[in-house]
C-alpha cells in the first residue's frame, strides 16, 4: 500500500513526463519546420502524446491511479472514489508537475523552437468560438475519462493491466481530431496550464478548464450510474 506522499509524487512525475514529451513534441516539430527539415506533423505529435500517457499510466496506475489530468481527478472525485483532500492535492501535484516541465522546456530549448508555438499551449482556431471550443474539449475529455473508468477503474474491465494502452489510444484520437480546432492538449487542463504559465499565453485559457472538467463529470456520472452501480465506492 502506497502512502499519501508517494501518490502525490506519482502524479507529479507522471504529469511532468507527459507535458515534457507532449509539449516538447510540438516544439520539436516546429523547430524542424523552421530549419527546413522534414517534420513529423500532427500524427507524430499525437503518437508522442498518446504513447507518453500510455507509458506513464501503465507505470503509475498501481500507485496513484495515474490520473495526470484534472478532468480525470474531478471525475473520480464526483463518483466518490477519491476523497476531497486527496483530490485537491492531486490537482496541486499535477499542476506543479506541468509547470516544472514547461519551465524546463523553456530553459533548455532554443527560443526559436518554443516562442512561436507558445510551448505548445492550446488555443482556438480563428473560426472556432469559445463555446464551440468548450464543447469540443469537453467531448474529447469525456471520451478519455470514459475509457479510463472502463479500463482502469471498472474491476470487470477487459483491459485492467493494459488500461494505460487503452487510455493512450483515446488520447491519440483526441489529439488527431482536436488539434486543428482547439490544440493538441485541450482535454487536459494541467497540460494547458503549465505551458500557458511558462509562455504567458493565456488566450482563451478558460475554455481548456471549463470544457474538460464538465465533460469529465458528465462521462463519470454516466459510467458510474449505468455501469459501476454494482461496484460502490470503497
Major sheet characteristics: none
**What fold name goes in the CATH topology slot?**
Glycerol uptake facilitator protein
Mean pLDDT: 94
Number of domains: 1
Q: How would you name the CATH homologous superfamily?
A: Glycerol uptake facilitator protein
pLDDT below 50 for ≥5 consecutive residues: which ranges?
Answer: none
Number of strands: 0
Helix content: over 70%
The CATH class name reads Mainly Alpha
Our count of helices gives 9
Topology as H/E string?
HHHHHHHHH
Amino-to-carboxy terminus distance = 15 Å
Q: Shape, please? A: globular
Please tell me the CATH architecture by its name: Up-down Bundle
Radius of gyration: 17 Å
Beta fraction: under 5%
Structural class of the helices, strands and pairings?
mainly alpha
Summarize this, please?
The chain has 234 residues and is mainly alpha-helical. 72% of the residues lie in helices and 0% in strands. It has helices at residues 4-34, 41-64, 70-78, 84-108, 111-114, 130-153, 163-182, 189-199, 207-227.
Structure description:
This protein has 234 residues and is an all-alpha fold. It is 72% helix and 0% strand. The longest helix has 31 residues, at 4-34.
Keywords:
Glycerol uptake facilitator protein, 9 helices, 234 residues, 72% helix
Topology (SSEs and partners):
Elements: H1 4-34, H2 41-64, H3 70-78, H4 84-108, H5 111-114, H6 130-153, H7 163-182, H8 189-199, H9 207-227
Helix pairs in contact: 1-2, 1-4, 1-8, 2-7, 3-4, 3-6, 3-9, 4-8, 6-7, 6-9
Amino acid at each position: 500500500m502506497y502512502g499519501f506522499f508517494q501518490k502525490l509524487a506519482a502524479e507529479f512525475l507522471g504529469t511532468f513526463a507527459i507535458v515534457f514529451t507532449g509539449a516538447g513534441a510540438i516544439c520539436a516539430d516546429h523547430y524542424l519546420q523552421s530549419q527546413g527539415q522534414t517534420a513529423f506533423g500532427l500524427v507524430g505529435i499525437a503518437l508522442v502524446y498518446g504513447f507518453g500517457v500510455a507509458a506513464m499510466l501503465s507505470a503509475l496506475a498501481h500507485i496513484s491511479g495515474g490520473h495526470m489530468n484534472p478532468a480525470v481527478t474531478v471525475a473520480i472525485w464526483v463518483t466518490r472514489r477519491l476523497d476531497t483532500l486527496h483530490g485537491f492535492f492531486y490537482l496541486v501535484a499535477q499542476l506543479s508537475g506541468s509547470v516544472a516541465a514547461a519551465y524546463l522546456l523553456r530553459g533548455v530549448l532554443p527560443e526559436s523552437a518554443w516562442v512561436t508555438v507558445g510551448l505548445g499551449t492550446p488555443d482556438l482556431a480563428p473560426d472556432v468560438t469559445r463555446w464551440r471550443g468548450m464543447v469540443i474539449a469537453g467531448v474529447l475529455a469525456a471520451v478519455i475519462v470514459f475509457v479510463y473508468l472502463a479500463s482502469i477503474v471498472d474491476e470487470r474491465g477487459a483491459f485492467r493491466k493494459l488500461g494505460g494502452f487503452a487510455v493512450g489510444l483515446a488520447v491519440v484520437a483526441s489529439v488527431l481530431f482536436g488539434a486543428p480546432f482547439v490544440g493538441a492538449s485541450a482535454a487536459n487542463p494541467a497540460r494547458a496550464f503549465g505551458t500557458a504559465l511558462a509562455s504567458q499565453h493565456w488566450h482563451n485559457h478558460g475554455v481548456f478548464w471549463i470544457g474538460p472538467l464538465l465533460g469529465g463529470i458528465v462521462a463519470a456520472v454516466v459510467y458510474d450510474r449505468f455501469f459501476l452501480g454494482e461496484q460502490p465506492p470503497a
